[in-house]
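> forwarded from #structure-qc
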C-alpha cells in the first residue's frame, strides 16, 4: 500500500519545534495506516477518516484500488 503525506496540507513543521515527540508519534501512526487504513477508533465516512494521536487529530483520505493514504489535515485538539 502506498501513502502520501502532502507537506503543504500537513504542516507538521509548525509542531516539530515545540513537540518533536508528538510529531514522531503522528508519523508512526500514519505509517501504521499503510497496514490498517481503518484502525479501531477511526471516525468518519468510508473514504475520509480521522484518528487521534495524543493531542493531535489527523484527517486522512483513502482513495484508489491500491489504497492511497493522503493526510488532509493535522491539527492540535483543544
Amino acid at each position: 500500500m502506498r501513502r502520501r503525506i502532502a507537506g503543504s496540507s500537513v504542516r507538521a513543521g509548525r509542531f516539530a519545534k515545540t513537540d518533536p515527540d508528538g510529531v514522531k508519534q503522528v508519523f508512526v501512526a500514519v505509517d501504521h495506516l499503510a497496514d490498517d487504513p481503518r484502525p479501531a477508533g477511526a471516525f468518519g465516512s468510508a473514504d475520509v477518516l480521522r484518528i487521534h494521536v495524543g493531542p493531535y487529530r489527523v484527517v486522512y483520505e483513502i482513495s484508489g484500488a491500491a489504497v492511497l493514504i493522503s493526510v488532509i489535515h493535522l491539527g492540535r485538539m483543544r
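QC bot note: Helices lie at 7-10, 13-16, 20-33. Residues 48 and 61 are 4 Å apart (CA to CA).
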